[in-house]
Amino acid sequence: MPADNPSTSYLRPSQPQDRDAIIALIDDVLSEYGDRLSPDVADRDLLDIDGYYVAAGGMFIVLEDMGRIRGTHAAIPMPQQPGVCIFRRLYLETGLRGGPWGSRLMQWALDWAREHGMHRIEFWSDTRFERAHRFFARFGFQRDGRIRTVEDGWLPYQEHFYFLDAPFPTGDASR
Questions:
Q1: Domain-embedded: residue 4
Q2: CA distances, 82 to each of 73, 78, 118, 136 (Å)
Q3: Any domain includes 70
Q4: Separation between Cα atoms, residue 15 and residue 25, nearest integer Å
Q5: Distance of alpha carbon 61 from its chain centroid, rounded?
Q6: What would you report as the CA-atom Rg of the chain, rounded to the nearest whole angstrom?
Q7: Residue 103 and residue 100: Cα distance in Å, rounded?
Q8: Which helix (H) or strand (E) holds 157?
Q9: What range does the domain containing 85 cover?
Q10: How many Cα atoms are found within 13 Å in the side-chain-facing hemisphere of 151?
Q11: Is residue 174 part of a domain?
């Protein structure tokens, strides 16, 4: 099912009733890597998205297509570092990767950071997500060489640190 029809596919803020669909989407993506969600520890933020993201001044959006959640992304300011935000939870169904929706989700987050006066974006990304890392590079995100080992999920994993300093790209940087 292509999510290319603007009358049925759109980005919108998440709502509490989206929680189970968001969790299922992210769990499906992790299962591609032999992993799964750990909502009691590493993925606790997904149990109360508004309480974690919106209450902290951030935003969590979903790609909805004909009533189905097919993608997610979130941005949240870092209170201990004014002007810096973290991107989290960029996930997209397998069949939509490589199309326009990944870029639209990323551009939404870049625009959010710009509109909220951020001068730097940071995030950690699982080292297994190699395709995503090429995608991040097209938007100008860089690694600084840091890799951390995380053991709060179902399986231990490692993450690369990414950052992007303003000015942030506008338009479709994926091409």
A1: no
A2: 21, 7, 8, 23
A3: yes
A4: 15
A5: 9
A6: 15
A7: 5
A8: strand 157-165
A9: 9-165
A10: 1
A11: no
Strand locations in 68-133, DSSP E?
Answer: 68-77, 84-92, 120-126
Taking 80 as the threshold, does the pLDDT of residue 125 lie above it?
Answer: yes
- pLDDT tens for each residue of 131-158: 999 999 999 999 999 999 998 888 889 9
Q: How far is CA 163 from CA 7, 45, 110, 146, 158, in A?
A: 34, 22, 12, 11, 17
Q: Supply 42's token pair.
A: 């590493």
The reported pTM is 0.92
**Nearest of 28, 18, 75, 45 to residue 152 by alpha carbon:** 45
Cis, peptide link before residue 6, omega less than 30° from 0: no
How many CB atoms are closer than 10 A to CB 173?
16
Is 46 inside a domain boundary?
yes
Looking up residue 112, the CATH number of its domain turns out to be 3.40.630.30
Structural domains in the chain (count): 1
Question: CB-side exposure of 134: number of CA atoms within 13 Å?
Answer: 5
Tokens coding 75? 């941005």
Residue 3 CB-half CA count within 13 A: 26
Three-state DSSP state, 67: coil
Under DSSP, the state recorded for 17 is G
The pLDDT tens digits of the residues spanning 156-174 come to 899 999 999 999 998 765 4
